[in-house]
Amino acid sequence: MQAGRQANGGPGDRLWLCSQTSSVQAFRVVTASKHRQVARRAADGGSVQATLETTEAPPRGPPPSAPVKQESEVRVVDIGPDTFSLRGYSQDRLKFEIEYNLKRGTTNNSYLIQAQDGTALIDVPDQAWTDAFVEQLKTKVGIDDITYLILGHFSPKRADSLVALLKERSSNAPPLKVHCSNPARNALLELDNKEPGLTEKLDIKVAKAGDQLDLGGGHQLRFFLTPTPRWPDGMMTYDAASKILYTHKLFSAHVASENDFDRGGWEAFGVDWKYYFDCMLAPVARQAAAALEKLPIAAQIKGVSYAGLRGVEIVKADAKFISQVLRSFLKLPEGEPAAAEGVIVVKALAPIHGPVVRSTVTELVREYREWTAAQIQLATEASIAVIYASAYGNTAALAQAISRGVSKAGVSIETVNCEQSSASEVAEIVSRSDGFVVGSPTLGGHMPTPVQLALGAILKDPDARAKPCGVFGSFGWSGEAVDELEQRLKDGGFDFAFPAIRCKFKPTESMLQTCEESGTDLAQAVRKANTRARKSKEKTATSLASSAVEQAVGRVVGSLCVLVSRDGDAESAMLASWVSQASFNPPGLTVAVAKDRAVEGLVLEGGRFTLNVLGQDNAGKVSKQLLKPFKPGEARLQGLETQETESGGVVLNDAIAYLDCMVKSRMETGDHYVLYAIAENGKLQNDRVLTAVHYRKTGARY
């Protein structure tokens, strides 16, 4: 875990200081290199260093497939004085992790500052952009002329780009001066396993809170350590000259827009920013909130607010905003906005994914604060601990999908990376949680030591046995770690909310869907227990008052339908009765989908589904099938006769009509999302039977 406190890096500055208190160290490789290769091949993802403490070589499994080269490009964009972004751009879905589910492509951003006394490169891209990145970089600067490398985030997936960069430097070039966090330094030292002697070309300096780097010409860089369990190496960098805050993963979005900046503002990118936050930062809301607290941001160019303004005052507000934008675009000097002591004035947020944020700085930072506060508030009602270690990213991807399922069911998550947390810290987090899951890769046929220590701490807690739990993991051969986790918890008397999740190599869309559903099942088990406890304390008068409203709402009726959606090898379905036509041209309809429905993750904006309208003659048979309880990943339509439309939709033979639909937009409405969808294709299959209508007596349930 990380402990935060304030430190003084300059007059009035409030900086984020992080101390690593973990007593868990990564395994050391003590066998021959052949065994090391098998261990690295046998597990999944993240940053655990695989080690074998046995002289017996594990079974040799098939090696993971090489990364698929996608069509991608890197373009150079001027974003500030002496400052450029190298924007890796791809409209393909490069990875199957849950955070890419919107399928709007992604960007991978690096930044270059060519200052008076030195040139600094901020971050290197994912391996998908390695070749294009190096070629574009050479068009802007001689590789030997790059003095500094600032790493806000570094992972094995970015190692290829750094290796290629170092190979382009001449033999007589001085070592590249690297400023990064201590976890990033440890990852850099692993480069020698990829290319022996490579780290000799690096002069690594571990950044501490308050550290600064002067590049000349006013480019005074200031470093802020912002670790999270998923990104323990996280570090932000602020440039006083350009007033750009380089935010690594924070304020990111997976979207490949033609706009290099946030043109269109919240309307264009709000969904992407929120979805990325929900997937990646909601599970670490406490750490995200701590980073925001220690990084007080004031926007230089603020959006227009018309609150309290009338007539000519509105015109003046518009004129002031236009003046600010023009001065910024033309790089004309302007007065600095007044800032409270310690507040950094930010002109732009430069994340590692998505557009450079200029026009929406104030709104995005405000929303981040509100989102993190909401997640922390949820933790006071119920929380689930997601505990894992990962060797190559696959177990981490499973953890992220489970967290997404928990979060959408309205339960807070506390993520614990075993590599960064001691056994006592794990025990403390489990003790204050209402449920937990444990994930592990399999290294040499066993759990890595950090997971063993975490499991031991859980088994020692007698109160933990009353909490629902689950286990998961990925592996390259036989997956003994998951079996051992499951068996030891069973022997300890623990109850499982879902079957153990075993993933061989990288997770597929279907596997991620199973993980998400499992997380939702666990969250629902926790909420059900908490609801029983809360209802026993409710007053009768309150119950009677709410009952009257619920009875009235229950008289609102809708047609009974089955919504089916597919995404690759993932498929889910649900019974839907909150359905209504919404527009004539284009033919559109609305469907309400509960946030904790399994199908919810498949009907995001741009997603497709088939709406099967049921008739009065056979609605009972279909409803009975879809109302029964399902295990995570279990087929919903088993036993029902179906056919496939030309667009790949699933049609029930018993449906009297169907519509192939595309989700145009989604609106958050309390515990549901309302989808507005365009009907692209459809057919009336039976014109002799009337539509089945769902009648209810209460609006409190379906």
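[next item in queue]
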Amino acid sequence: MTDLKNFLSQSDVQALKAYVQGPSSQARADSTVLMHVTHSNLKNTSFFELRLDRHMTVLSVKEKLKSHTGTAVGAMLLQMKDLNGQVIATLADDNTVLGFYSPQDGFTLHVIDIDPNSSSADGWLEDVSKVQKYEISEEDYNARENTYRKFKEQKLKEDPTWTLQKEIAKRSGKEVKEAVNDPEFQAEEAKGVEVGNRCEVYPGSKRGEVMYVGKVEGLPMGYWIGVKYDEPIGKNNGTIKGKQYFECAPKYGGMVRPSNLKVGDFPPADDFDFSDEEEI
């Protein structure tokens, strides 16, 4: 007998989930971050896209997670993992704000329950050994019409590079962006950019100062430009996935592709020249 979950890859499951659920209808603040939550004692349970605010203290985050996991705040140790599941920070100081650790959408907060007498210890809250899983034989599944397997096989015959993500994007009328596989991507565009240059970032005509030029671990291949914006319109403080590339205040930093930036005489808004009639 074959477990039905073997017919779909993890990426297919996530893509289907995103397609079915669609974009969130809830208003989202700039400081909001969507993070997954896992638990040391809950091996089969996780919480996806929990809304947190970067201005929350670690203590406030723990208090919110208590209602989801049942672990007491005092028995909770938090670790932050990147998109690859690697631990990049331990949230040890309850008074530090979450944004200090540069969380991003899709990152995971892993709760370690250090209470040996916790109700979730030994995994007894998740004892599913008596639950019968739905199973179907290969023969019965292959005999069915209009299955996902047959649909996928047909699509791959038509296009060997086909993926479910591409199919969903196509049906939604969205542009499918190809993954960057060139480690020197946009190296030519980056040649004319130097640290200290004033710049303007597009879209949005956001102004700032170039603070870094080069490659960034954890981001797609190729060259990136680190920018310190004149206003708090960025996404970080110069730290990307636990590594600091430049220094700036929270929400003043950003990483952009060289093609999305121009360098030149772009003074801060307060430094604009005014005519005599506009001077006060």
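[queue empty]
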